[in-house]
């Protein structure tokens, strides 16, 4: 058996199953479906999309559509590989099988670093909302409270994580569905107290492309990174009751629903609210839209939703980081102590991932002008690096699976290999666009530096391990 081939789950006396990495299969299909939907719906959509609208104007709809197509292709490829070989290391395991241990090491630890820093950022954002409700309370205390709560949640059985994430995601999804419903009623002119805006906001104030192609490019870059988070469902699938069927169904349903939520939301917002309205950036596009329609207490309602989105992301990212670290260690690519499981949970990995996230929060207070900014720039393009490894791995593994075990291809990439190459070309184009834009160029450089460092370490480890049997 190869180092990356997982054996069939072992039966347990309690009726649950355990994976090759010692993880329990405690997640149900409803958990996976909501993790797939909720993992990507965060503050980036509820608040951060305002900057994209300010840059691209109404053409932000096209930007989200283009990036949405790319994300759908990436998730289809990842779904194909994860349904054929479910593993908590997800794309890291696939990269190792396809390209070698160095690739699994690079993709896995880069993603772990991204998730840990994101945990800190989400904690800071949630704390700011709480200090707004409770003036005078220290932000660090709220961050510490959230970190302890979700660390404890993830230290317990995986079904606890699943339940938390299920209800968090359900609230976020419900909020977006309600927003889209209200928005459509306002657009057609049947919402009480409002008149249909027609196409005035889409074609006025500079037209559909008010800042031309440059504005569209900035909006495109903003939209690409807003979709990050979908990958968590393929990590969680390895701990579900039926990993193959679970990941296949979750990926299939999540892709079009998320595209609808993102693209639909942007279309509603720019149709109802003038894109140049400063409130779109200052308050966030959802709050600005509800205020524009005269919905009572819109700001506080959306603050609750955004808080839930941030807490949900913290919960999911601690989970994803711990499982990725545990998977890497189980393959000999990290400190052995991190890979130990207790009750089917990699508790050392959960603790280390949580502590690293809290350290990032402390750095935001101690060194906001240098180290914290460096952290932000370093994770700027990691999701694109991960997507690149996914596409490159799928090119190799699809042909291998067709030869060796075609029955495992429960999910198939569309029009293979043409659309896989199209996705790779799209990623390359985004890298080029990032290099052109001053605001994203430094992120590209720092992310590139981190990726190169990890690749060198991965190659070195691969060489050392390759010599081990000869030296024995």
Write the layout of secondary structure elements.
Layout: E1 10-11, E2 17-18, H1 29-38, H2 43-56, H3 60-84, H4 91-99, H5 101-133, H6 139-155, H7 158-188, H8 200-203, H9 212-226, H10 232-236, H11 243-272, H12 279-282, H13 285-292, H14 298-330, H15 347-366, H16 371-378, H17 382-404, H18 418-436, H19 438-471
Task: Describe it.
This protein is mainly α. It contains 19 helices and 2 strands. The protein has helices spanning 29-38, 43-56, 60-84, 91-99, 101-133, 139-155, 158-188, 200-203, 212-226, 232-236, 243-272, 279-282, 285-292, 298-330, 347-366, 371-378, 382-404, 418-436, 438-471; strands spanning 10-11, 17-18. Strands 1-2 form a two-stranded antiparallel sheet. β1 (10-11) and β2 (17-18) form a beta hairpin. The two termini are 20 Å apart.
Give the N-terminus to C-terminus distance in angstroms.
20 Å
Give the overall form: globular
Q: How many helices?
A: 19
Order of helices and strands: EEHHHHHHHHHHHHHHHHHHH
Give the strand order, joined by hyphens, for the main sheet: 1-2
Helix content: over 70%
Low-confidence stretches: 1-20
Report the sheet-strand fraction.
under 5%
State the secondary-structure class: mainly alpha
Tell me the major beta sheet. Answer: 2 strands, antiparallel
Radius of gyration: 22 Å
The tally of strands reads: 2
Q: Mean pLDDT, nearest integer? A: 83
């Amino acid at each position: 058996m190869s180092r990356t081939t997982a054996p069939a789950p072992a039966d347990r006396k309690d009726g649950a199953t355990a994976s090759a990495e010692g993880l329990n299969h405690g997640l149900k299909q409803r958990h996976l479906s909501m993790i797939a939907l909720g993992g990507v719906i965060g503050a980036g959509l509820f608040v951060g999309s305002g900057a994209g609208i300010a840059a691209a104007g109404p053409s932000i709809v096209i930007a989200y559509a283009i990036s949405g197509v790319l994300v759908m292709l990436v998730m289809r490829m990842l779904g194909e590989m994860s349904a054929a070989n479910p593993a908590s290391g997800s794309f890291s395991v696939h990269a190792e099988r396809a390209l070698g241990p160095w690739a699994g090491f690079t993709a896995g630890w880069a993603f772990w670093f991204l998730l840990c820093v994101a945990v800190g950022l989400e904690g800071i954002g949630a704390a700011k909302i709480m200090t707004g409700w409770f003036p005078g309370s220290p932000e660090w205390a709220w961050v510490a409270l959230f970190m302890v709560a979700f660390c404890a949640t993830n230290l317990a059985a995986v079904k606890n994580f699943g339940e938390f994430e299920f209800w968090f995601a359900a609230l976020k999804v419900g909020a977006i569905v309600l927003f889209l419903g209200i928005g459509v009623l306002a657009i057609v002119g049947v919402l009480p107290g409002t008149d249909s805006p027609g196409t005035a906001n889409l074609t006025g104030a500079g037209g559909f492309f008010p800042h031309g192609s440059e504005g569209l490019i900035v909006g495109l870059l903003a939209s690409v990174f807003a979709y990050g988070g979908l990958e968590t469902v393929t990590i969680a699938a390895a701990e579900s009751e039926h990993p193959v069927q679970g990941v296949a169904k979750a990926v299939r349903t999540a892709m079009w629903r998320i595209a609808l939520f993102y693209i639909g939301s942007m279309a509603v917002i720019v149709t109802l609210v003038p894109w140049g309205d400063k409130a779109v950036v200052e308050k966030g596009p959802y709050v600005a839209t509800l205020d524009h329609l005269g919905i009572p207490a819109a700001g506080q309602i959306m603050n609750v939703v955004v808080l839930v989105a941030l807490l949900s992301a913290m919960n999911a990212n601690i989970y994803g980081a711990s499982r990725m670290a545990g998977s890497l260690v189980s393959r000999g690519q990290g400190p052995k102590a991190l890979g130990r499981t207790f009750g089917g949970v990699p508790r050392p990995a959960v603790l280390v991932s949580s502590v690293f996230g809290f350290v990032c929060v402390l750095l935001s207070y101690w060194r906001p002008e240098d180290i914290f900014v460096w952290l932000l720039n370093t994770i700027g393009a990691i999701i694109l690096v991960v997507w690149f490894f996914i596409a490159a791995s799928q090119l190799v593994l699809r042909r291998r699976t067709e030869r060796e075990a075609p029955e495992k291809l429960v999910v198939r990439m569309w029009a293979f290999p043409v659309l896989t190459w199209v996705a790779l070309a799209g990623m390359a184009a985004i890298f080029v666009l990032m290099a052109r834009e001053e605001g994203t160029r430094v992120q590209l450089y720092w992310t590139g530096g981190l990726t190169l460092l990890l690749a060198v370490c991965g190659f070195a480890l691969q060489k050392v391990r390759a010599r081990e049997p000869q030296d024995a």
